[in-house]
Amino acid sequence: MATGEIDEGLAFKHLIEVDINLLLSGYGGLGDAANRLTRLFNEALQAGNCILFIDNFESLLSTEGAGSINAIDVLLPFLESPGIHIIGTTDVASYNQFIRTNTALSERLTRVSVEEANTAETIRILEDTVPMIEHRTGSLISYEAIKETVKVANKYIMDVPNPEKSINVLDGATAHATSERGKTIVLPKDVLSYISIKHDIPATEVEDDEKQKLLHLEEEMHRNVVGQDEAIKAIAGALRRVRAGVTDSKKPIGSFLFLGPTGVGKTETAKSLARAYFGDADRMIRFDMSEYQNKEDIYRLIGSNVGQDVQGLLATAVREKPFSLLLFDEIEKAHPDILDLFLQILDEGHMTDGMGRKVAFSHTIIIATSNAGANLIRESIQGGVEYNKTKLALLDYLQRENIYRPEFINRFTQVVAFAPLSLQEIAQVAALMLAKLQDTVYANRGIKVVVTTEAAAMLAQLGYDPQMGARPMARIIQEKVENFLATKILAGELNKGDSVTISPADLS
Q1: I need a labelling partner for 230 at 20 to 30 A (CA). Which of 74, 159, 160, 339 fits?
Q2: Cα–Cα distance for residue pair 457/476, rounded to 1 Å
């Protein structure tokens, strides 16, 4: 309408944008707010040639936006008249919450779905937007930066449509580059740098140091994980593929089903991966699937159904930390309907939350752990059965016993069987735990702790349980070593700068 390129029937119409928050600000009570709305609609009706445009239409309908008045009751009588014209915009989630659930309102409004701009359309819109950004910042924006903006916005931002997300990225990248270098020319590298900082995603090109980290990822993870070479090899291979750009970027970076007995390192492997790849063990987000045994529990993950306002734990976690490792512990305990949710996530790389919004998992690593088939694994390994044969027998058992459906198992990048830990591997676990304890005591108390080889072997023997794996080891070290040190410190026998050697005699 602003350019005059409109249908003849709209030629003499006046488009008026209504700021609902401004209209209702400072009202003198609910009656005053309702009167203001009524007067607005009456004047538009009497004029006859006005089109009211209300952006974020839900702000009129939500109790917070309209000062707790029943705006729908005010609006409905006017919608009955052909003399009033209203255009409102809203997103799918707000439409489902405020409009679709109200039959009287939804029947009087015509829904028009506006499709997201495609890549070519978004580039043209950015070209029109560039002069305003350049005028505001004083910097110049290269055409290559515009193309890179659309590329990374499509790749890393899934819950905001185009052209909005591309405009936001280009605006932010220009402001960032200008603050770093003053008036400058914005290049593709500036867009990559901004998206990496803003969304906490390593979007920059793979540098030499990261190449080395990926090439030696197995070695890095084995610093904290004992044994389980097959699991670590599978994970490292998946990460190398995605960072080299030879895999489907829409799917999760990698998805793995870890099967094995308790205490063999399934969770520690996931934590080690988060630390090695994302730089922080806190990048691992854990869900205890034993808490999702009922069908209705799915809404705790994806959010509420229509008419409620409950944020889903999984949807929120991925939106807040899109580049993260998701650990679903004991997934066999979840309700079958919840397992169906993973079919779409693992295959398509996204899900739809309870409010109809898309949640992208394309930058996550997904690991599900399960104790199902633990006895079969234990018996096969102890019987000397080859690893691959054990894995095939395990998959057959899981499907034969209806523990997991074939389509669920086949969605994972790889299914990994974790073998029981031997006494020698338990001794290595004990060494890792003791090293962490030594570092903690020295950092907190300035006391150097030395554990003799004999004492370490004794701890490994005490903590070895073929059924429970490494789980008992932490308790043994706590009871034998930590209690010994705590007693000595409280008694004043160990002080800052001292050194203590722990032998088998100290562990009795």
Answers
A1: 339
A2: 12
Of 153, 92, 91, the residue nearest 122 (C-alpha) = 153
Contacts of 420 (CB under 8 A, 6+ apart): 260, 261, 264, 377, 378, 381, 382, 466, 469
Interval 82-127: pLDDT, tens: 888 999 999 887 888 888 888 999 999 999 998 899 999 999 999 9
Give me the sheet containing 85-88, strands edge to edge: 14-17, 50-54, 85-88
Q: What is the pLDDT of residues 217-260, one digit of tens each?
A: 888 888 888 888 877 888 888 778 776 766 666 789 889 999 98
Residues sharing a CB contact under 8 Å with residue 224, sequence separation 6 or more, in sequence order:
268, 271, 272, 275, 432
Q: What is the mean pLDDT of residues 294-299?
A: 93
Same topology between domain 209-417 and domain 423-507 = no
Residue 24 has pLDDT above 60, yes or no: yes
> Is 1.10.390.10 the CATH classification of the domain at 119-198?
no
Q: What is the pLDDT of residues 145-187, one digit of tens each?
A: 999 999 999 988 877 889 999 999 999 999 999 999 999 999 9
Q: Give me the CATH code for the 8-108 domain, please.
A: 3.40.50.300
Q: Could you tell me the end-to-end alpha-carbon distance of the chain, in angstroms, rounded to an integer?
A: 88
* HSE-CB of 370 using CA atoms within 13 angstroms: 22
Contact predicate 494/485, CB 8 Å: yes
- Answer yes or no: are the C-beta atoms of 277 and 239 closer than 8 Å: yes
**pLDDT above 90 coverage of the chain, percent:** 47
Per-domain boundaries in the chain: 8-108, 119-198, 209-417, 423-507
